[in-house]
Amino acid sequence: MSLSPNSTLAHYTIISKIGAGGMGEVYRARDTRLDREVAIKLLPTEVSSDSDRLLRFEQEARATSALNHPNILTVYDIGSHNGSPYIVTELLEGEELRERLDAGQISIRKAIDYAQQIVNGLSAAHEKGIIHRDLKPENLFITNDDRVKILDFGLAKLRGTNELLGSEDATRQAITNPGVVMGTVGYMSPEQVRGQVTDHRADIFSFGSVLHEMITGRRAFRRETMAETMSAILKEEPEELTQSNPSVSPALDRIVRRCLEKKPERRFQSTSDLGFALESLSAPSSSSGSSTMTTHEVATEPESPKSIRRPLLYVLGFFLLIGGIVAGMLGSSFFRQTSLPNYEQLTFRRGLVYHARFAPDGQTLVYSGAWNGNPSEIFSTRAGLFESRSLGLTNADVLAISSTGEMAVLLKRQFMGQLIHKGTLARVPMIGGTPREVLEDVQEADWSPDGKDLAVVRYVDGRNRLEYPIGKVLYETAGYISYPRISPKGDRVAFMDHALQWDNRGRVAVVDLAGNKTFISEEYASEEGVAWSPTGDEVWFAASTSNEPNSLYAATLSGKTRLVLRVPADLLLHDIARDGHVLLTRFKQSTDVIGLAPGEATERDLSWLDLGGLNDLSGDGKKFVFSYWGQGSGTNYSTYLGKTDGSPAVRLGDGGRGKLSPDGKWVLALLSQPSQIVFLPAAAGEIRRMEQHGIEQYNEAAWLPDGKQIVFLGRESGHLDRCYVQTIDSGGPRPITPEGVAGTTVSPDGKLLVAFDQNGQAAIYSIETDDKPRPIPGLSNTDAISGWSGDGQSLYVYSWREMSLKVSRLNLATGRKELLKEVTPADRAGIFYPPSIILTPDGKGYVYSVRRYLMELFLVDGLK
Predict the structure, then answer these.
(1) What percent of the chain is modeled with pLDDT above 90?
(2) Which one of 49, 90, 478, 763 has the minimum C-beta count within 10 Å?
(3) What pTM does this model have?
(4) Which CATH number fits domain 347-526: 2.120.10.30, 1.10.10.10, 3.40.50.300, 3.40.720.10?
């Protein structure tokens, strides 16, 4: 059936017909409820009884409605009109990519821009398990503001089902079983041509065909007949890009050719990898007065020899198999080729990789991963494989593998901070067996070269100790130690030394067997991952400044540092094999902030920026304070003030762990360099600084209810942390707890403080008197304290178990707990840090944060 102008369909008024195709007619309409123009696709009456077509129509609706991305057509609604199903989408103004191509060749810059947008949309679909399977210029729409929209997920295959569907294009067949051709001839992958079961890599091939056409202006595999076209896809290579466009760079040519590999395993293994490759094409190249290679980037359209007036840095595209790099010489007019790294992705699921190590054969790889919110598990794989095998050890982490094939693993893991857990160290053969427990309270470990001894990091009495061999303390700190690695000769241990507990800024250090420690790097804002070079003359590590992602560096024992690899992603180094192969992960961090303001019925997403920590919530539940420590945050991080109504957050200044004053006019924050407490105005005003009076290190602070005093956790030179109270404008600090007792949770009347001793036992201390601390009945060692109730009779406590946040009211007199709320994040993948929550004094409003890492493990060859 057709719809005439001004007719109605549900609450939509038809304006005009836009077009028609095998899957239905498309109309422009007005949504009378929301007063906006939309597009409506209506399945024709004559085919509405066709169960296959109905199924394809519903598949398109389900697939597309599951996606919410600026490069994918947005689905608003679905319904049925007089027996004919319809789907309502956003109305696009512009033209199909086919029309743009028919109008003339697209510039390389514009083609790369369109390509990046297409890949961004495909990545979002693939993350949801949705494969398009019919990507072509007719299904790509260019809006008037040059945004690409992917249309028609009618052929989408939802992973995990056996459903295979086609469409009605003249060059396609509808099928319901493998062995029959599906897709659009000319853009199909070889596996589609053969009628084989396909996965997301078929989309990558089709994308390559589209990108080839955008660059050359001609279809990659078009022949006189459909049979000849299909044969070309299976057996022939497309024409060289430079034949049609001499300005195409080798890097871009390699991207297209890798997309169009006949075998799926030789293509990019994910659109995420492909996206990084395209991003590197657009990254600006650096210049230098030296010909020394200092960074890896990809050149786009290269300068002509006449325009070269200074040396170019070596450049490379991350995760590309590129055969050469461009190197310019002063006044030269020639280029030379050199080999580039090769990247092989090893993991494909969503979650974390804690540690990854090479086995003695250099080909077997063992790693511990936590996928889709499940507990950590140890897996093994080999180069060239795309699947991993579980070794049967759950809630476990592989720390090291000896030269004899014995694993050091961490069992009974308890989260400490950053990516650090402590637990029980155990030994187990790689071939399997029951783990033999060795030592408790261990965080990390590494084997000596001969496989006889272990270096370990232990958490003892609130401090970190590096022992090698076990029992011999080489170094101890009040901060923390990460990634200990024994040198190839066994005479030194390299590690990351972090001055503050669970703050991953730090320096790379080396300690010899006599306990002599030397720093071989400057301090970085973030450090994750250490490994010795095969010759032992360098220590490689991953670190970042405050304005860059984590990059890969190498430092000599004398402290000379060089950049090995920098890409538009964060890197974490795991291991280096004897032949120079490298295991590293790329990762993305994010922090979700969710809040419920008092009087509201639904939560609101209050997330701002990508990485930070939740610090405080105002008593009325309208304002909250959070710290930002992502890229550009600076050495001391940044403090932001947000509102639970969802309005934009405001940066107040440098500092972290901010707390809002009782009158809402100030936020106290902590600087780390130098360590100091500052007061940031929440509105107009000037920053104030508190006198230190001999305090060497500040770790936490909070206001007293009068707004004139604060309580803080600090340390004087030569002493342990303890709690102090201090008047802001006059006088020095007064200690209120013994050394080693930490906490800043103040009661509503300002007289009591909840603090923890070195054994993690909580008690209530008096701020005004020397009374003995009172134990807290009913408080479990798995409970975290959110704050006091408004009447001072209870504490709000919460625990994180089995991916669920349980919030309770703990009566201080009876020890009875009353469950108030249970929060379970919808997306559990990559959550490694127990969420934190802050409630208003009446318990009706709250904000909570969820921090996650998403990692992918790569095997890299060719880094130097």
Answers:
(1) 55
(2) 49
(3) 0.56
(4) 2.120.10.30
